[in-house]
């Protein structure tokens, strides 16, 4: 299933409503040109003072299988299971320091914006992309000699959409379950903080 628009209460852009995090992947290569387009989308994300603190470490199964396998080994076992047919892994990094060597407090926020741009571009290209926190960030830094100033925030896997029925039963159920989010009144406060929103969590 590739088309799962969010059941929004208010109409939003189809690109945003349509983006989701699949786990069913097809076992066929993603062209390098499409991967580059994902990174180009991320490049144009907004950032404080236009510092652009995002960095991406990209592993393409069809281009460098050895490097891909080393990155794949850093995923937690649960994520390894459903990423069997993933074609690309992209580590999202944030440069935590400014050019002056001081801490950049918005680095993670800005890198997250770039990652979201990448995910939206993937959806626009009819690719499946899923961001994960379940990976060994320390192992990533050691394995690929990433300087200490760069924080590994997430790992995004990319592939062509596959058949959810090919997933293990538990994962197939998640894949096909209705999409849901907290109600708007639980996350948005207008004019002042409201305890009501907290109680809705």
Automatic annotation (TrEMBL):
GO terms for molecular function: oxidoreductase activity. It comes from the Bacteria. Residues 16-158 form the Nitroreductase domain. Pfam families: Nitroreductase. The keyword Oxidoreductase applies. The keyword Oxidoreductase applies. This is Nitroreductase. It comes from Caballeronia concitans.
């Amino acid at each position: 299933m590739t088309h799962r628009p969010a059941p929004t209460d208010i109409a939003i852009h189809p690109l945003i409503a349509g983006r989701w995090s699949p786990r069913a992947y097809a076992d066929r290569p993603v062209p390098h040109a499409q991967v580059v387009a994902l990174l180009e989308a991320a490049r144009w994300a907004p950032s404080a003072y236009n510092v652009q603190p995002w960095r991406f470490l990209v592993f393409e199964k069809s281009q460098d299988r050895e490097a891909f396998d080393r990155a794949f080994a850093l995923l937690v076992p649960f994520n390894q299971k459903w990423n069997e047919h993933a074609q690309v892994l992209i580590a999202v990094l944030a440069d935590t320091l400014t050019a002056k060597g001081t801490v950049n407090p918005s680095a993670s926020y800005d890198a997250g914006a770039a990652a979201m741009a990448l995910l939206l571009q993937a959806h626009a290209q009819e690719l499946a992309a899923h961001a994960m926190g379940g990976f060994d960030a320390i192992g990533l830094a050691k394995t690929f000699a990433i300087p200490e100033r760069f924080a590994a925030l997430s790992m995004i896997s990319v592939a062509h959409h596959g058949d959810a029925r090919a997933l293990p039963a538990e994962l197939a159920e998640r894949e096909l379950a209705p999409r849901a989010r907290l109600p708007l009144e639980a996350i948005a406060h207008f004019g002042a903080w409201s305890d009501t929103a907290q109680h809705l969590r």
